[in-house]
Write a structure and sequence with these properties.
With 484 residues, the protein is α/β, with parallel strands linked by helices. It folds into 3 domains: 189 residues, Orthogonal Bundle (hpI Integrase, Chain A); 137 residues, Rossmann fold; 47 residues. The protein contains 21 helices and 8 strands. It has a 5-stranded parallel sheet with strand order 5-6-7-4-8, sandwiched between helices. Strands 1-2-3 form a 3-stranded antiparallel sheet, with no helix packed on it. A hairpin with a 4-residue loop joins strand 1 and strand 2. The longest helix has 24 residues. The protein is flat, with a radius of gyration of 35 Å. The termini are far apart.
Length: 484
């Protein structure tokens, strides 16, 4: 005797499974009869979605065609499967992503068998027996049976064939193809899925790097090609450039990227203290201060008297920190060097500095560029729903690269970026705030005016409505103020 599940038991078992991964596992056993170790060793690359074939490796290497039933369940799991550095097709869904073990697969089969109230012991081997017996009932040739089942011993095959003969078929076969004949779906489901088949998701290969991918300014820049070309042209002509824009638009990244475009460039992270900046410039010129603990004037004279042939471009970040007493030394540098600088704000006290520059303002990234940046930064994160994450980051960042980077860094500590984690994401750096004060004043004036008009026209209904509107306005205004 061979233990197996009959038609009703198989149907009861499948009806208890709602999880796409578990349904794909049980369906794979029932429709291909692969061994337990073959299922847990199955890799993403072992499924050929185009030809609808399963490539089994190992001692029983073979190719098994997938009928529409199991293909749809595998495709559904591929959509729900979290992309990670794990290449196994069947993975865990909680905690760290790793391949399912033989023990965990048998455990989940027993769990659903208990839910289905099946009286017998059910495991992966019994599901394989179920497939083998049903396959033998189709009248398939002996060699084809051995090929599909991965059998070497003919005695085992004979046992399956004898069991199949002893079992009365519970339903007619609807296809000449042996695996298609095992398709248990209803006629309506088959028709519906033939019109709208489940499309598999091609797994995203992840980088084998610990932590998030970072956008190194020496290697990559997102969506600033026009600005880069213009700035390079102006700097080569000797025109000093000042890059402006709101916080988080990547001005520092932009400066560091431009530094790699010039053979001679000195990057200075801050113009203060002025003496430190001058010492950095001297060091960048390949020199040392002529006088130990030299004054600002002495350092400045040494820089100015450097031969013009080796004068580099000075790249200075956060220029708004420049102090007013340091304006004159800085203007002297502007007269002798081409300077590329960046600032968040252009204060009035430094107007004389701003006038010396050609100002180029950075705008927030457009949507296609933002999507490219998100794809690049999240390429090695295990994400449940990438489309949901992309939409969330787009809405929160509003094209602000710093906001995107901060949120992705927050996700790096999660073993899996689940849908709930995505829902909880928040960052206000890229959120646009609108000033509603003027609109509120106008709305308030209209309400008061409507009350006087109602009094003048003796319209009792309009007067009540205007009063009702005023009351609502006051209540809303109160709660808005409390929320601030």
């Amino acid at each position: 005797m061979i233990d197996y599940l009959n038609h009703n038991e198989t149907k009861a078992l499948l009806n208890e499974i709602a999880h796409s991964r578990d349904l794909a596992i049980v369906s794979l056993f029932l429709n291909t009869g692969i061994f337990l170790n073959e299922l847990t060793a199955l890799q993403i690359s072992d499924i050929d979605w185009k030809t609808k074939q399963l490539n089994i490796k190992g001692n029983r290497a073979r190719k098994i065609a997938l009928n529409e039933d199991v293909f749809n369940t595998l495709a559904q799991w591929s959509q729900d499967r979290i992309d990670s550095d794990c290449t196994a097709f069947f993975t865990t869904t909680k905690g760290k992503i790793q391949p399912l073990s033989d023990r965990s697969v048998d455990h989940l089969i027993r769990k659903y068998a208990t839910k289905a109230r099946l009286n017998q012991k059910v495991n992966a081997h019994i599901l394989r027996n179920t497939f083998a017996i049903r396959l033998c009932q189709t009248g398939t040739k002996k060699e084809t049976l051995k090929s599909i089942l991965g059998l070497i011993d003919s005695d085992v095959l004979k046992r399956y064939q004898d069991a199949a003969k002893a079992i009365k078929q519970t339903q007619p076969l609807l296809s000449n193809e042996p695996l298609d004949a095992l398709d248990n779906r209803s006629w309506f489901t088959k028709k519906l899925q033939s019109i709208w088949p489940t499309q598999p998701k091609i797994a995203k290969p992840l980088k084998a790097i610990d932590g998030i991918i970072e956008a190194n300014p020496k290697e990559i820049m997102f969506g600033r090609d026009a600005e880069l070309k213009k700035i390079r042209t102006e700097l080569e002509r000797g025109q000093s450039i000042l890059i402006t824009g709101q916080i988080g638009l990547g001005k520092t990244h932009f400066l560091k990227h431009l530094e790699t475009n010039f053979a001679h460039a000195i990057f200075i992270p801050s113009p203060t203290p002025i003496k430190q900046m001058l010492e950095d410039i001297i060091q960048g010129l390949g020199q040392k201060p002529d006088i130990p603990k030299a004054s600002v004037r002495s350092l400045l004279n040494q820089i100015i008297h450097t031969p013009k042939a080796i004068r580099p471009i000075l790249i200075i970040d956060d220029l708004a920190k420049l102090k007013q007493p340091d304006i004159d030394p800085f203007l002297l540098l502007l007269d002798h060097f081409t300077i590329l600088a960046a600032t968040d704000t252009m204060s009035d006290k430094l107007k004389i500095i701003w006038w010396k520059f050609q100002v180029i303002e950075l705008e927030p990234l457009d949507e296609p560029t933002t999507k490219n940046m998100i794809r690049y930064l999240t390429q090695n994160l295990p994400i449940s729903d990438y489309q949901m994450l992309q939409t969330k980051l787009l809405s929160l960042a509003n094209g602000n690269p710093l906001a995107i980077t901060d949120m992705v860094k927050h996700l790096r500590h999660r073993p899996v970026v689940s849908r709930q984690v995505i829902r909880d994401l928040y960052h206000d750096a890229g959120i646009r705030y609108r000033e509603w004060s003027n609109m509120l004043i106008i709305f308030w004036a209209l309400l008061i005016m409507s009350r006087f008009i109602a009094l003048g026209t003796h319209s009792f209904e309009a007067y009540i409505l205007a009063g009702f509107g005023t009351s609502i306005f006051m209540v809303l205004k109160y709660f808005v103020q409390r929320m601030k």
